[in-house]
Structures are given as structure tokens and as C-alpha cells.
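dumping this here before i forget
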Amino acid sequence: MRYLYHLALSIFFFSCTSESEKNSIISIELDDFKEIEISSELHFFEEIINPSSFMHQGDKILIGEYHNVPDEYPRFHIINTVDWTYDKPKGKVGQGPLENNVPSFIESQDKDNFWVNDYNNRKISSFSMNDTSLLASKDHNIPDPSLGRLDLILIPNGNYLGMASESESKILEFDREGKLIGHYGDLEKIAEMPDLPINQISLLNKGRFGGNQENEVYVLTSMYRDKLEIFNYKTKDFISVIGPDLKVPEFEYIDSKFGGMMSFPPNYPKKYQEVAVSEKFIFALYSGFSYNDYAKSGLTAKEIRVFTLKGKPKWRLLLDRSVSYISINEQANEIYALTTGEDPGIAVFQIPKELL
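structure:
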């Protein structure tokens, strides 16, 4: 194996916890992975117009519509994975109680309810999987709006773990009332840019956030750097997986009243597009395609890089079609993915026997 373990670089102590945090680094090469080609079957649903988010929960798939879909259409769709039928719509556009504007899904283990984070409306909403109302069942407090938009996961103790766009910490923890109660992992300085402000480092590292509530392993991926961070909630330790591409991309930082953002060259290939964590493995959807590629041919990502929970590289799953989101169904040994293109659908891949 060519991947290299680096000894723990540093130990951080935080006022929110008495436990120490270690950060280890693994550097990888593409040759560390074994390649496996996998093919899929497709399912289409005419009710879905322009999907922008995707999550598997229980025996359902949840799909969220892009914000430009007309207001008279529902925000979400529930799909049955047992027989691949359309279950029901959910979500009504609006600013009022139990309505939503631009919500994003919150991962959870609940089979009867799902949660969304509606930053524009400054609230979290929960929906019943079982009733037929478009409206949410209940609105909840959102974490501090000054932290900006958050990717959230509902964890077994009832709290939320979150990844903020601009934060000095890699992961934040909130109670059910939205109060910040923990922060884990200091952002590391970038050697090539020692004077780069922390908020810009945070934006450079920004990507997807996923995890597994049973083994309590959570993963941050970067969309513009070959980097993913593995966080063990039980031990509060981090493992950083970097490479093969270690260079920092060219970028322009743009500040606004809505917060900072990064602009990258249109021909720069994106890195990790999405992440899902199973009982034994991390499935990281990897792009390698640029904005120009997407504009020309609709290509987003066609491979999944599989790691152990300790960050050891194992396989590259080469997909037969371009996808933008993935989820894992361990009971059925299937990978679900949202396809890209003019007529997006749900692709179903069988998990290869080597991973079982």
C-alpha cells in the first residue's frame, strides 16, 4: 500500500468537552484503490421536476426540488424503495408556520418522520412520512443564524451535528433547541497560504457532510480539494485523508452581506460530490469533472471511492452513468443515486460482493 499514516499532529482541548481530540493524516494515491465496474437499473417518476437533494431513510427515498420550481409544486417527494412506486408529495412553499422556502434534508434514523433545515425561514421543520398533508408537522428552532447555512445530522442523543460554511471548527454540536453546546476540530492552516484567513480556509474545505448514527462515524468532504475528514463522535478523534491531488486550487474570495463565497475557474475539476457511511465503509462520490463538463454534457460524477472507517482506501466503483447524490441501503445491499441530465431519475446499483 502506498497510503501513508502520519502520527497524530496535535491535540486540541475545548471548553465544551473534557475529552482530548487527536488528528491523524493519511496521504493516498490513486493506485491504492482496486477498480470495480458496476451497472445500474433506472427508475423515473413524472412527479419529479428538477431535483436538487436526495436522501434514503428507512424504506423510503426523499427527493427535494430545486428552488426555481414554481411555488404551486411540492418541495419534496417520497418514493417507496420496496416496489419503486411514488408514495406522496410533501412541503408547501411559503413563509408561514409549517411552510418552507429553501429547505435541506437532515439525516436521521427515524422511519416515520423526516427533518429539514430551512435557513431562509430560520427554522427546522419535521414532517410525518405517514400523513398526506403537504405541511410540516412541527417547526423547531434553528441554530444561531449568524453561523450561516448549516448541513445538519440528527444524532442518537437527540442533538444535531453540523458543518458550517464559515467556522473556526470543523464540526459543531447543537441541542434540540438550537443552542451551540460543542465544537470539534480546529481548522488547519494551509502551508502554501499561511496568511489565508480562517473563514476562507473553511470555504475552501466546504463540501458534503454525512454519517452513520449507529457507529457514530461522520465524514466531511471537500468539493474543491482532495480531502475528507473522518470524525468519530465516541472518541472525538479526526482522521484526515488527503490526495492524490494536493495542490490548492485557484480561487477568488467574494464577500457579501450574505457571507463569503469562493469562485473557481470553470475548467477546474470538482472533487468529492457526496458521502454516505455504512456499518463498515465510507462511500465518497468523486467527481473529477468541471463546471464546463457539466454545462456541455451534464457530467457530475461517475465513481465512488470506498474507504474503511479508518480512512484506508479500498475500491473505486466505476459507475455506468453520471450521478449527483448517493445513499446506501445495507439491508438490500444496494446503492441509490440521483442521476443527472435532462430527465433525472433514481439509479440502483448492487453493492459488489467484495464489499459484503
